[in-house]
Amino acid sequence: MNHEQAERLLSARIDGERLSSRQTVALEHHLASCAQCRAFERGAYRLREAARFEVAPAVPDLVDEIMATIGTAAKPAGLRVVRPTRLPPRRLLPRLAPIGAALLVGVLIGSLIVGGPWHRPENGSALAAAEVADGISAAAAHLDAYQATFRIVEADLSPDVPERDLTMRVWFHAPERFRLDVVDHTEYPAPTTPTDLRLVVDGSRWYASGPAACPTAECPQRESVVRNRLPFSTDAPIPTDLVLPISTLADADRLTVLGQGTVLGRPAVQVEVPFERARPLFPFVEIGGDWRPFFANDRVRIWLDERNWFPLKWAVYPATGAERDAWALRFGLPDEPSLRPVFTVTALDVSTRTPSPGVFRIPASAMSRDQGARSVGLSEVARDVGFEPVAPRTVGGLDRYRVVVPTDDTARSLIAYADGLAFVNLGETRTWAGTAPFGPIGVQAEEVPLAGGGIGYYEPSTDLHGRRLSIHAAGTDLYLESNLPRPALLAAAAALPVRGLPMPDAWRVHEVAGATIERVSLEAARSAVPFPVQLPRTLPAGFGLASVELVEAGYGNGVTLYFRDRDADAGIGTIRMHLEPAQALPPATSASQSAVDVGDAHGRYTPDRSELEWIRSGVYHSLDAPGLDLSELVSIARSIGAGV
Amino acid sequence: MHDPDPRTLLRAREGDLGAFEDLVRQFQGDVWRFAYHFTRDRALADDVTQETFLRSFRFLSTFRGDSKFSSWLFRIARNCAMDQMRARNMYAERVTPIAGSAVDPQARVELHAALDAVSAEHREPFLLVEVFGLSYQEAADVLGVRVGTIKSRMHRARRAMMDALALEEEAR
């Protein structure tokens, strides 16, 4: 062994890297007879001292600045109810199964495991999923006031705390007054900050407080205050699903009716959705404190009052399968049988009495975040922003409720319409210079005809936004955002005194990396490329073609098709299919790619992009969607051109 | 360096600002020190630290746990620092007088002189391993090189710095 080799080994050993026993013996042997290398070792330790104890400068505390930047510049979060970007595989196609079969299974399981009053449903008395979804949407517009008390029982927070007991109180007064209190009654084995939470919303002001979710037993309290809040802000939201599960259950494709019974002495219907869909029913876990984790596919069973659709009881049942087991292991959870609920919320009393105004008083607080929405009278808008906004007395049957303008100099107006829990926000500007439709709407939004001849650009609801529609009209741009169902939103937009025009070229045509991307009709795309453009016959329930782009690069034209859920984006995201002439797949770009058979063609699957690629008849196909797994992608791919 | 509680990480990934704040609190010191060593400029280190957390918040959903969270964060910090320095046209090597630390100024200046005596290629792994206590594997994750590369760079960094500081004079 020479000095160079010995020093290398010494250097690694000093850094705690493992040497083999052979290397250690050889090194020790060399050191015993080499003063130079012993000096290197001593020198290295002195260098370490110098580096560790003398380089360290005083570190500033930047937490507040960082959090302020994130609060304003990053995607809004706060109470936002979000899902993991990559969901565990879910059953997509079984959703198409007849409700009757699902009901039968549900009834059998339900009668075994649901405690409390439970009547076996009579034949034929079962409600269909669509009736539940429609019923909730219809009830939303008429609910003026609500108050309720719930008991929360949580299992397996930690080995020391196998069960927790909490109370939740909820008050609501339409349209935007809300309060939620959680009081923790758990007797902890060691001193622990209880999960006591409060959320109060009073129109333009929003307040949340609770302990930080910290790893230690005693956690600091956090307060979060918003002023000049936007009407129906998704950034500082009201968790109204506790009152009526509009976003959880408004989509009939995604809920299963299990059966009917009696809860709290009221006729009730039980439905099931996966946890990732039911998150709005668990808003308290986002406010603060420590809560057990949930798996995206855990099943949430919800009892709804059949007369007014109030949620009366909901419980989380663990999903089954290896993936859930691996997940549970990561969180150190004990074995959780799938038939035992791990989290239960039960109503103790529910009423529609109007809460007294004092309930919604926001506690005084030093720090607050400004959302920049200043409430003004309708007559003041023109003076502030320089135009008379489109402002009918009602939109979609909802009454005008609040008018805001930006606190900065942007010439925009936002008028909120509301009735009960239903709302429409109507935004407008006369000086839109963007390269996409005005409002939170992208250039790939679906073009929809409006009754009366106009055109709008529509996007389904997501975690961040309600259903949206942008209208580009002569001299003005407007958008609507709402929790009304799609047909009601389109009808409301059609009734506005403007006529929507097609997108101007500046929005339709973009140059990207040497290629020209042009939004076109399906017919125009078909006539511009030398290969057939066929649509998949299998798509997830509720999905349809949203938009088509023609991609003109130097080597020939390609086509990109975008498919979206018409109603609510529940985690699958946009399904994108790209076609262009090619004889072979492009070179591999990811180590984790694998070969897949796509019907009669050989394909390639890239899991980190959820992308399936294949060549058929001289055409390269690429299909991707953030929330689809391989089998779902393959079933869509196989339905393209098959049997046509 | 300890990785965060997986629950905190999960909550932060799901957009919980409180959980993310906990991550900021836990890692801001290390990120700032790393940025400072990289930029040698307190104000710039502040900017890099802010930018690092902003980027990590935006891209948290892409963190898949292939490497340690701290390695992932340092990799972002390094990219931010390089961007900032490129933006300020100062990516070239430079020496700045150091201020603000309470220990023996003479030793500090010498150590910095020694750090300046080695190339960035050797200084980076040295800082990650020696000052921040990363393993070779973690340093390799941050710098996007192989473990063997870290091993030889550590050795050469030590050799060069000892020569610069004349730490071995008794043996010469």
Walk me through the structure.
The complex is a heterodimer of chains A (644) and B (172). In chain A, helix 1 (3-14) runs parallel beside helix 3. Chain A has a twelve-stranded mixed beta sheet. Chain A is built from 15 helices and 30 strands. In chain A, a hairpin with a 3-residue loop joins strand 2 and strand 3 (177-184). Chain A is of the alpha+beta class and 644 residues long. By secondary structure, chain B is mostly helical. Chain B starts with 5 loop residues before the first helix and ends in a 7-residue tail after the last helix. Residues 90-105 and 168-172 of chain B have low confidence and may be disordered. Chains A and B meet through helix 1, helix 3 and helix 4 of A and helix 1, helix 2, helix 3, helix 5 and helix 6 of B.
Task: Explain the layout of strands and helices.
The complex is a heterodimer of chains A (644) and B (172).
Chain A: H1 3-14, H2 21-32, H3 35-54, H4 63-73, H5 99-113, H6 129-140, E1 145-158, E2 161-173, E3 177-184, E4 197-202, E5 205-211, E6 221-227, H7 246-249, E7 256-263, E8 266-274, H8 275-278, H9 284-287, E9 299-305, E10 311-317, H10 322-330, E11 343-351, E12 369-370, E13 373-375, H11 378-385, E14 394-395, E15 398-406, E16 412-419, E17 422-429, E18 446-449, E19 455-459, E20 467-473, E21 476-482, H12 486-494, H13 505-508, E22 509-512, E23 515-520, H14 522-528, E24 543-553, E25 556-565, E26 575-581, E27 594-598, E28 601-606, E29 611-616, E30 619-624, H15 630-638
Parallel strand pairs in A: 6-12
Antiparallel strand pairs in A: 1-2, 1-11, 2-3, 3-4, 4-5, 5-6, 7-8, 8-9, 9-10, 10-11, 13-15, 14-15, 15-16, 16-17, 17-21, 18-19, 19-20, 20-21, 22-23, 23-24, 24-25, 25-26, 26-30, 27-28, 28-29, 29-30
Helix pairs in contact in A: 1-3
Chain B: H1 6-13, H2 17-39, H3 42-59, H4 69-87, H5 105-117, H6 120-131, H7 136-143, H8 147-165
